[in-house]
Amino acid sequence: MSEYSILLPNEKAKTYQYVTLFILLINCFAFGYVFFNTSGNRLHNISLFGLIIGYVALVLFLINFFTGRLASFRAEIALIISALLWMASGTYLPAACIICFAVIGFYANRPFRVLFSEAGIRYPSFPVKIYSWKEVNNAILKDNVLTIDLANNKLIQVVLEKKVAASVDETAFNAFCKRQLDN
């Protein structure tokens, strides 16, 4: 095989989900407050639409959170729509904060894959780091632990999920890495 792609566990995903839930709740309460405390027709309509978007997003998020269904639902899209509604109502600071959080969410929820190829190792950090094989002392997969030992004394170790580790032939992967290091 000329390259290996290994899915790394996203350890920050659960924390991000709790923060997303908190922001969705605050957003719903804020739109509700504006809706019930304004009399202007335009602002009243914007806050009603925001309230509907917020509660629908909250319900879909909770369904996804507790059951795992609706995995394609992205709360970030609902947050961007809410931010646009906040902008339309003239409150720019909450809109900017929500947009920043949504953009971070797109990054935080992406799958983290490390790619081992003949050209080198592509590690999914921010920004993505590409290590040539000359920068690597050793790379090994053993007992569900991926270890990358870099020449600059940096060590990257990740415990893989059993399902992911089982999908990679350990012996063939280690032989591939050894061949690349010997070249």
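Above is the first protein from milestone M3; the second protein from the same milestone is given next.
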Amino acid sequence: MDIVIRAAIIFVILWFITRLSGRSTLGELSSFELILFITMGDMVAEGVVPQDYSATAGILAVGTMALLTISISWVNSRWRRPSTITHGVPVVVVHEGEVLHDVLHRERLGLDDLLAAARGQGIELVSNIRLAVLETNGQLSFFSGDQGESGGSAPPPVG
């Protein structure tokens, strides 16, 4: 039972760390950040299963984390409120050609990263962007020109 409790605590700590690291970081990890996250997994293994190298302990720890992940996915699929806590909400970073610098700063997204993503979508000028949204997975969505509604859910609130 001790391993299950340790695994659950480590799961919550890892979830919290990834939420703190920010969306833009999770959307595109650098090589260093990827190595850091992999190494972090190795470091927490000792905290979950201290000096117990048995297959049973490993399976129990991994099973606990898998069960928690599946449980969170199930809860998120049933109710919207927990999803906003576990995954966050999309955030508008450009509105009607105006970059919302305070939002960029709060989300730890650099202007250069925003402009590079816009260029990647074939957008030359920020003034051509009607709406840019930082999605919960760290990707940027751009809407430009006089496009009609796409039929999707309502756009996220500005700012």
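Note on the second protein: The helical segments are 2-20, 23-27, 31-48, 55-78, 80-86, 101-106, 111-120.
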